[in-house]
Amino acid sequence: MNNAEMEELQSETIQQHPMTKMVLDSFPLKSWMPSAIHVLLKDSGAIPEELSRIRAISSQITILSSYENYEEFNKGLTYIRQLLMLLSLVLLILVTSVLSFVFFLLNRPRRFEVGILKSLGYSTQNIVWLFLKELISYGKTISIVASCLLVILSNLAMQVLKLEIADVFQFYLTSIFTLIGLSVSVLIISGLLPIYTTCRQTVVDTIRKNG
Known about the structure:
- This protein is mainly alpha-helical.
- The protein is 74% helix and 2% strand.
- It is a multi-pass membrane protein.
């Protein structure tokens, strides 16, 4: 039975059995005529309060999904969240290790550049700072690209799931700051050791090892 047929059946039933009270707990009595009602809530934390409110309406209402079932479901979500956090941590470590190896390979040809800068009077700290500024610039570019992708995916989610801007706005802000923080942190952590190893060599070592 589709929605139109159900509404027609409800109207016929009310006409055959007129009721003086057409409102029950601020809900139209007509909406309580079906044998089963499915209530959707945006906030899962409001389920216990909503169950108590529904039970207070009438003792004849039977709730099929109980609060205990919600607790078990919430525990399952917690386990899944912890597993995803562990996998994310492992992936971050792998990405940091791979990027560190890549930076080692990229910085080896720059030993000549380090030798020239040191011969001009630059200290190791000055050269490390120059290299770190390049990493931060890369991090900004990656953050901008990731933010653009997040905007596109958020718009797709809003279209598919019929969401409003308020539903994804907080998620979007949190994701933006998380992406920026992770991008800059991973780049700096993975590039710090290769940069320092390359920049700490002396001018004599540069000539001797690369001559």
